[in-house]
Design brief:
By secondary structure, the chain is mostly helical. It is built from 3 helices and no strands.
Length: 106
């Protein structure tokens, strides 16, 4: 089955579009209002404790993200070092003629 040029271009454009859309996908931001209902009833200590708790939660989430990124890098490098050499393996012994040439020259 032969594909015409238009079909090939359309498939290429669709693939690029799909990759672009996937790369731009993510969760929608969920901003927190400056003023929350009930803040006026809380004491300053309670508000500062809530802010400190939120800061701690942010720090924990940032540490999880850093740990996840570290593992992603480790897995990438490990996969690169394991999979890429398989493409360089010569399974057909095509290097043997060069050994004969080497023994002939030296």
């Amino acid at each position: 089955m032969q594909h015409n040029s238009f079909t090939q271009k359309a498939i290429c454009v669709l693939l690029v579009w799909a990759i672009f859309i996937t790369g731009c996908a993510g969760s929608a931001p969920n901003p927190v209002d400056r003023y929350m209902p009930g803040d006026e009833k809380k004491s300053c200590r309670a508000l500062f404790a809530e802010i400190k708790d939120l800061d701690n939660n942010i720090a924990v989430k940032n540490n999880k993200i850093k740990e996840r990124d570290t593992w992603n890098v480790v897995f990438f490098i490990t996969g690169f070092l394991v999979i890429v050499p398989w493409f360089l393996i010569d399974c057909k012994n095509s290097y043997k003629p060069f050994h004969n040439l080497k023994s002939y020259l030296f």
